[in-house]
Amino acid sequence: MGAQWKAKHKDLAANAKGRLFGKLAKEIMIAARSGADPASNSRLRLVVEQARKVSMPKDTLERAIKKGAGLTGESVHFDHVIYEGFAPHRVPVMVECLTDNVNRTAPEMRVLFRKGQLGASGSVAWDFDHLGMIEAEARQAGADPELAAIEAGAQDFEPGEEGVTVFLTSPADLDLVSRALPAQGFTVLSAKLGYKAKNPIDPASLSAEHLEEVEAFLAAIDANDDVQHVFVGLAG
């Protein structure tokens, strides 16, 4: 949770599938500005691979690429905005948005943060590292993530959920490491830039009631259409 918060309950995850496709479509459109061919556009290639992993419909994917590359005649503009602050009980949060209307998103974020605290730029970012985050799974039992991290040029690695390993890189090395991991026996599931808390709060320090309030706050933030990723300073 210290890297990127994800809904824990399967029913929430299922209901969020449409929102996930919408978020990925935005990232695809932005990446496609630099070219519609994933083979020569590394950023687009990574997002397209992620979209395929979650079974985004082919026509939705192709439409987003064409729209972003300007092949449909439609203009596409999104602002990248990060909101910083605290969830209830002083849990630090960074919210990454892609919006076509900041004047709509800003007041929506202020309302959502009423149960926490919205901070100024830099108020929370100092306590997070900006990193490349690659989720990958071993193709065979016994694959050594430490050796793979060293050989692929990752800075570090940590175990993720359901046998997935998260490889951490400098932002500049994200694509390089993503390309190198398959040769080390790992299949890349997703690759993105994100924020990892330097001093995450131990969930055990919060009561069950307080933890539930934090989860409800994060779920409400994540449900906003302009929100791409939510990064939380909570361990585990």
UniProtKB/TrEMBL annotation:
Keyword entries, A-Z: Cytoplasm, DNA-binding, Transcription, Transcription regulation
Subcellular locations according to the entry: Cytoplasm
Domain TACO1/YebC-like second and third per the UniProt entry, residue ranges: 79-231
Primary location recorded for the protein, binned into one broad class: cytoplasm
Chain ranges passing through the membrane: none
A single GO molecular function term of this UniProt record: DNA binding
InterPro entries: Integrase-like_N, TACO1_YebC-like_2nd/3rd_dom, TACO1_YebC_N, Transcrip_reg_TACO1-like, Transcrip_reg_TACO1-like_dom3, YebC-like
Keyword Nucleotide-binding among record annotations: no
Domain TACO1/YebC-like N-terminal: 5-70
PANTHER family on file: TRANSLATIONAL ACTIVATOR OF CYTOCHROME C OXIDASE 1
Family the UniProt entry places it in: Belongs to the TACO1 family.
Protein name in the entry: Probable transcriptional regulatory protein Q2T77_15535
Organism of origin: Variovorax ginsengisoli
